[in-house]
Amino acid sequence: MKKLSLLVLGFAFACNSSQKTVAEAQQPKPVASPVSYAESITQEDLKEHLYTYASDEFEGRETGTPGQKKAVNYIKAHYESLEIPPAQSNGEYFQDVPLEVSKAPEGNMSINGTSFELGEHVLTFSEAKGDYNSIVYAGYGIEDGDYSDYSGIDVKGKYVLIKAGEPVDENGVYDISGNMEQSVWSNASEAVGKKRDIAKEKGAIGVLYYDMLSFPRSNRYFQYMKKNNSGRMRLADEKSDEVLIYLDDTAVKALKSDIEEDNIPKLIEADIELNITSSDEKINSENVVAILKGSEKPEEYVVISSHLDHTGITSDGQINNGADDDGSGTVSLLEIAEAFKKAANEGNGPKRSIVFLHVTGEEKGLLGSRYYTDVDPIFPLENTVVDLNIDMIGRIDPNYEGARNYLYLIGSDKLSTELHNLSEEVNNQYTNIEFDYTYNDENDPNRFYYRSDHYNFAKNNIPIIFYFNGTHADYHRPSDTPDKINYDLLENRSRLIFYTAWEIANRPNRLVVDKAAD
Description:
It is a single chain. Helices cover 31% and strands 22% of the residues. α4 runs parallel beside α8. The model is unreliable at 1-25 (pLDDT under 50). β8 (159-163), α5 (188-201) and β9 form a beta-alpha-beta unit. It has helices at residues 2-26, 35-38, 43-53, 66-82, 188-201, 215-228, 249-253, 323-345, 367-375, 417-431, 454-458, 487-506, and strands at residues 94-101, 106-111, 114-117, 122-124, 128-137, 143-144, 147-148, 159-163, 206-210, 233-235, 243-247, 266-277, 281-292, 297-307, 352-359, 384-390, 406-410, 434-436, 464-468. The strands form 3 sheets. Strands 10-1-13-15-14-16-19-17-18 form a 9-stranded mixed sheet, with helices on both faces. The protein has an 8-stranded mixed sheet with strand order 3-2-12-5-8-9-11-4. The protein has 518 residues and is α/β, with parallel strands linked by helices. The protein is built from 12 helices and 19 strands.
């Protein structure tokens, strides 16, 4: 009996010991201190990177140019040297971002046998081809409440002739407002888009727009594009199939001589020939995207972003090196990635995945980040926890000449109170930078919240922080050079962002979004 009791006791002890081991194995691994990894981000390394990245060799890194190609290859080589893998499943660091530069189209429009060269009495910024034997006149082209210029007419498959303005009676009372105050339909810049959109919704294939007051302004821009062989850059898949052709007094009289007096919509028989060809230029550019997979929550993503491009070379041949804008953000991101990889190599990799996102085309309208969020998100946006965006963190703006240790934070509280509080706590614990929320004000006239790449994440209800040192006299000028960077500040600010990303990546729960994007 004694022997049996000992056996049972031994078995019970073994089971208890086994259960304890299993329970211990289920405990999450404690988070290591990030301090030694943050301290690997040094001003010496940042300076070495930036004197190359913002050198004349990179020719100002304008989107789509050879200088920008040198920039993306420099970034790629850094991730390859660290053995941080590409984010894309195809094994490529480069996410192709197809772009187009709108150029002034060429050609002519014939109205009832009279030919008008583009840029004289007619103009458009779109390609337009085809022969038509009728159009629909839609008066002012307005549909607002009980008022509609489309009652009783069918515009499907037709070009629609519309004139600027809104109906008003002989006493000066406007039909839409019901009083002597003009409505939005008299706002030239806003009304044309609204009228075009209504025509499109009704099935029209294009709009012929008569506005004598705005035609000269639009034509000046057309002539500028034609003379300088340049235009606005956009994502290639954003090219509109909507045709809007502006007519001046001479052209519209060849089509409808009584347009000023007649407001009644009707079908008009007319011979229209459109021979307008596009000369838009295709541009190839690329984002650079790398990833460190999370150890426990690999399907949740912490994005850290900066833009890799700048404004290129001036018309008189000077290079805009863009050391602060956004060379500072780029080299900061490279060093932050290196710090995270150092931690991973020592068995302290992030629990959530870290996405290192270098975007192109920021200076052209946040194009690279918009492509990532709106067209080809490499990782699901619903699984993206945060975007920490770094754009200009190497200088001091005029407001802080005597107090250097500051940083503007924008957006930290817009979507997540938790993110804002975490950011403050991390700073108090590690870096003690004075946070300035001046540009976070909804009424800030600079509207910086909408002017850098974080915005494309924020509009998708992804919490963001935009780190920014403010503007200075060298902003977007050839004088924004590496020798003017405050490398001690760049070091501390980069460490702050690393610490913040570290905390977000390793905390038990993902950030709570308690406010909705506008």
